[in-house]
Amino acid sequence: MRSSERSGSIPDQLVPDTGGARSRWLRAPVIVAGVCVALLVVGGLVATVIGGADSFGASAVSDLGQLVAALGATVAAAVGVGRRAGAARRAWLLVAVACGAWTAGQLIWCYVELVRRDEVPQVSIADLFFLSFTAVMAFAVWPSGGRHTDRLRTLLDAFIIGMSLFAISWATTINHVTSETVSAGALGVVINLAYPCGDIVVLTIVLLGASRGTHERSSLTVVAAAMALIAVSDGCYAYLSASSAFDSGSVTGLGWIAGFGLIGCAALAGPPAPGSATRSGSGPGALSGVGSAAGAGISFQPGPRQGAQRGSATSMLPYLPLAVALIIIAANRYRDGSDRVTAIVVVLTFIGVLIRQCLTIRDNVTLTRHLENRERDLQRQAFADQLTGLPNRALLTDRVAHALEQHRRNLRPLALLFVDLDDFKAVNDTLGHPVGDELVIRVGERLRGAVRASDTVARFGGDEFAVLLEGDSDAVEAGSRLVECLRPAFLLAGEQLSVGASIGLAEVTGEQDTPALDELFSRADIAMYAAKRSGKGQLALYESSMVLPEAADLHYRPLLIDAVQAGDIDCVFQPIIELRSGRVYAMEALARWNIDGQPVAQEYFIKLAGRLGLLTALTDFMVDRACAQLAEWSTRLRRDDLRVCVNVPPELMTDQDFPDRIAIMAKRHGLDAASLILEITEDALIGATGAAAPVADRLRAMGLQLWLDDIGTGYSSLLSLRQISLQAVKIDIAFVANIHTDPEAARLLRALLALGRDLDLAVVAEGVELPEQAQMLRSLGCELVQGFLYAHPAPAAGFDDLLGSPAAETPPTPRRRSGPTATSGRTSRGSTAASAPRPRSTRKTPSPRPES
């Protein structure tokens, strides 16, 4: 398809190639050849009229004119061979050979008559070359291929045409030749009969091809006319030779001159215009279209449109020779005066048959046209959206594939935009589907008006559209226009409706490698979802870091299930320090997951565990690992005062069996429940306080401590802090990061510490990374701290020195960020795209919970 010529509504294959056949016949070589042939014919006619048919001058003009015409046809056919390919090339090669054979025979004829001034005998070596022309032409135009029913119909038509032509030839030539040339011997009879009979065969095939409505019917008609002229001249020659009345300067030679001239013109006519034949579903014809590429010669298979659109006149072409034959036979019988009534009855009967057949063919043509129109409608429906009239997914896919091929070949840039209407479901639900359909139509009109005529706007279905931009254009600016064109309100059903659109843009510049079709669609889709996540009514440009969470889930889902079931989740620890003494107060257990040595982003796989319903199993696993490690530390390092913290997802705070499982695990490892600390988020206090309170009370009764993690980042009210039994709160890193430089931050932190003291809650400050922050917290009266200043999350074996060291008034030296420890840096928020699961640096990475 040619993107510069697309209308945007129907595929190029449905657009007819008008005027292509006629324009090919107006080319200069064809005109020049036609003029030369006309001059030869006029010259021969003038010489015959002035000098007489038996004069040497008329003979010379006629013989040389035939030689020049045959030689010209040979050269033109050879030129045609170089301009064609496949079956057409082979067919025109045979035509060139056939014309060359005639040229050789005519050269012998001219030598005998014009050089030696002798009379050419009735049977000569020249006849061998003349008859070779007819034989080779039969192979050149011989049909091949087709279905069985098509071949049967073709044979029947060939029988009708052939028998009709034979009847005509018999009545006018053959009967006379056989009766007049008996004295010439068997060879003379055979040769004289071979001319009209051979012409009948070739002319039958050519007429049959024209009647079947092939793609290049114009070229085929010219060849048919040429063979008809040659056949007439051959018949006249056989008749006059049998009567010993043939003169070389007679007008008989004009038929050969004109016939070969027409063959030359057909050869010089250009092959089908590029794409015209292939768009309709067939290859080029064998004789530059004197047929199709179905075989080595003419194919009688009609094209998908031409077969249906050929008129009744063309369909009646096989019966034209029959009608001529009946008229000639009737005329002969009437002239002879024998049984005139029978002749009249036979003629009238066959005329009735012809009329009946004509009516049948007319009905068939009408039905075929109707079916063709229906097929064309179905094709339009297959490539156009029924509601908006825009191209549908199938047509857009085809055009995008073409654009990618152009990029691969010519580095032609392109861009694909996916457009998804925001809150379209609300329109359908509140105003009804008819209004929704009208909105879709109006949106399509605005999108179409916001791009160039050469760009493609397609509807994918529902409220989804796609736009293909080809060539040099500012794709981002075009996408912004699409966003802006939808901002003005739509007036539908008396309502002012404002609808936005989230647009994803995937651009392929000339410098980039050509992506696969599915990959380009995936890029635009990912960018569109990124635009929706960024707040709707946005344009998002695809970046290589973007990936759909759902796509990542497909890969990681089975791996995480297996890892949790097999216990392949790593447990690392980070200490919580008593700020005044520098002694380790507790160790927080944090979950880590690695695949083949590569860590998976903890925030991602914890959320994935929540979507898979694995948080309960993952939390029980982490509690059990933490209890086992705490028991080992307590025994080996004699730290009976050490505690371990584990994060608990909100849903477990309403699980009535959770306290029992905690008690079983603590008892199995010989621990006092008072040495366990469970950290819950503010999510546990929203809407489920009534169900969470009994579980919290049972845990507290066992001696466990309950801490509230990341206070200030959730949605709980201060009243919720007292609705369940809490012993401490952890202040999020956001409140600690700037306390050493920002007086307002220090003032807010002071208020939070005062609130903790007033509520009789211990306060833990997270994200302490600098000594200045630790000093500020000490001056504000903070009791417990945690952060990279003291240690990074690491396996248990890395904390023996820290856990075994005596209390110190100053914080221990920060550990290097190496080995199994985490790296620092903030977690990026508010990105327009979901990042692929990969290690992401955080100042504090919690253990399993939905929001980390």
Total of DSSP H or I helical runs spanning 4+ residues: 27
What is the end-to-end distance? 52 Å
Largest sheet: 8 strands, mixed, barrel
In terms of structural class, how would the helical and strand content be classed? alpha/beta
Order of strands in the sheet with most strands:
8-9-12-13-14-15-16-17
Please give the radius of gyration in angstroms: 47 Å
Strand residue content:
5-15%
Mean pLDDT, all residues: 76
Helical content class: 40-55%
Low-confidence stretches: 1-26, 272-311, 807-852
Overall shape:
rod-shaped
Number of strands: 17
Q: Summary?
A:
The protein is an alpha/beta fold and 852 residues long.
Set out the fold topology.
Layout: H1 20-24, H2 28-51, H3 56-82, H4 86-115, H5 125-140, H6 148-180, H7 185-211, H8 217-242, H9 252-268, H10 276-279, H11 306-309, H12 312-315, H13 320-336, H14 340-383, H15 393-410, E1 414-421, H16 424-431, H17 433-449, E2 456-461, E3 464-470, H18 475-485, E4 490-492, E5 495-497, E6 501-508, H19 517-533, E7 539-541, H20 549-566, E8 570-578, E9 584-592, E10 594-595, E11 598-599, H21 602-611, H22 615-637, E12 643-648, H23 658-668, E13 676-680, H24 689-701, E14 705-711, E15 728-731, H25 743-758, E16 762-765, H26 771-780, E17 784-785, H27 800-804
Parallel strand pairs: 6-7, 9-12, 12-13, 13-14, 14-15, 15-16, 16-17
Antiparallel strand pairs: 1-3, 1-6, 2-3, 4-5, 8-9, 8-17, 10-11
